[in-house]
Amino acid sequence: MSTEIELKLQVSAGAIRQLLAHPLLASTPPQKQHLLNTYFDTPKLELQARRVAVRFRKKGWQWLCTVKSAEPASGGLAMRSEWETPATPGIFDFSHVDADDFRQFLEQKQPQLEPVFTTDFHRQIWHLPFGASLIELAIDRGHIEACGRREKISEIELELLSGNIDDIFGLTRELQHKIDLRPAVASKAERGYKLFQDEPLRPFKSKAVPIKEQQTPVAAFRSVALGCLEHFQRNESGLSQGNDPEFIHQARVSLRRLRSAIKLFAPVLPPEFVAAYGQTWRTLAGALGDTRNWDVFLEETLPPIAAAFPEHRDIKRLHKAAQRRAHSARKSVIGLLAISEYPRLMLEFTAAIYTLNDSAPIPIKDFAQQQIASYARKARKLALRHAELTPEERHKMRIAFKKLRYSLEFFTPLLPPRRLKPYLAALSQLQDELGLINDHVTAETLITEALDGHPAGPVHGWIVGRHALLISEVPEVLQTWLAQTAP
């Protein structure tokens, strides 16, 4: 078995022409290959469910059988276990897979394996010495085909053949100075499955973080941060291609979780890392927040107002103004993703995460308990003073509960599930109540903005009344949370 460390980058045809003229490549003729691959799975796609890829590849006159464990990628970087051996097309022999349980699974499914999709592309390869490493740079151009449908392949792969992982990022930085290279998270196999199933673009939600007791706090942070980065990147296409507000929501959540993770793990992270990246995401997060506020206003806050005041002269004007501002906010997000600094930030942040020193000043379980206890104390102090809190303090309390919830979700694998489940349920209910209150506070600002500062009369009164009603319900949900035993 080998471990493949690979950085995948999306490129346009123009960027490929620039790359071919780059001094690092232009001075050396590339090795050229035509690669035809057929991927196999069971009728129920059980290999895909286990993030496994099995393919037959025609490479020149030779046929190879390859098995990969398709680990999720972040920032374009993927680490995969790979087994490859010469083979006869259609005849499966997994004896070269040296992981017993994994091999037994493949052998059990072997009789059911059938072709699912193909990838057909031309590859140009350079082996580049860079820093202390040898890196393979490959340009792939061709297509993926499944069920009569086709999708273009135009990408670069940089694979670490020997040396240090940070040299892959160093080489990419050098190429990015003049060429538009964007990290990609979807492998050809993943894209092939989506094409086979004719899957529409869907919002991607966060996944459970695979933290383990054996990890150091820094390694745990790496898992959390890369998960947040993948969460954002998998919603990136939806931000620019469609108007589904859920893409905005999920992208915003991913950055909020990421920023919360940096603060949560700050005691074990290098101060320069926290200083560099603690505020880096603020501009993009702010643009997503503005867009999300208008989406919530249009979808959730305005409809009951319109139902309460169907004849009010400002309702239609308010709706149109809100739509314009939501559209403008969405364009701001798309504009931020289009600038050259964005892919560079993704690459730099991914490199910084992977090259963090894995020191272990404290066991991860002790660190988790310490941080959760600290967050819970801050939230509890504010909760006990709820009746006397100002609107600004109530907002701080909402943020404190949000940080507490994120910390619990990050550390879930380390916490006792019996205590965690009711505690999280009470916390989620409390967050929902405080979120509704915040939406109504935000709505007052948005209405004033949309109507160019003109008051909306009875609409304002309705919001104030609804706001007061929501506040009156908070003590009950606070008591439910306060009665829970912390995990």
The class by helix and strand makeup works out as alpha+beta
Q: What's the number of domains?
A: 2
Radius of gyration: 26 Å
CATH topology of the largest domain: CHAD domain
What share of residues is helical? 40-55%
Strand content: 15-25%
Largest sheet: 8 strands, antiparallel, barrel
CATH class of the largest domain: Mainly Alpha
CATH H level, superfamily name of the largest domain: CHAD domain
Numbering strands along the chain, what is their spatial order in the largest sheet? 1-5-4-3-2-6-7-8
Instruction: Output the number of helix runs.
Output: 16
- The total of beta strands comes to 9
* Shape estimate: globular
Written account of the structure:
The chain has 487 residues and is an alpha+beta fold. The protein has two domains: 2-199, Hypothetical Protein Pfu-838710-001 (Beta Barrel); 237-482, CHAD domain, CATH 1.40.20. It contains 16 helices and nine strands. The chain has an eight-stranded antiparallel β-barrel with strand order 1-5-4-3-2-6-7-8. Helix 7 runs antiparallel to helix 8 (245-264), helix 8 (245-264) crosses helix 14 and helix 14 (391-410) crosses helix 15.
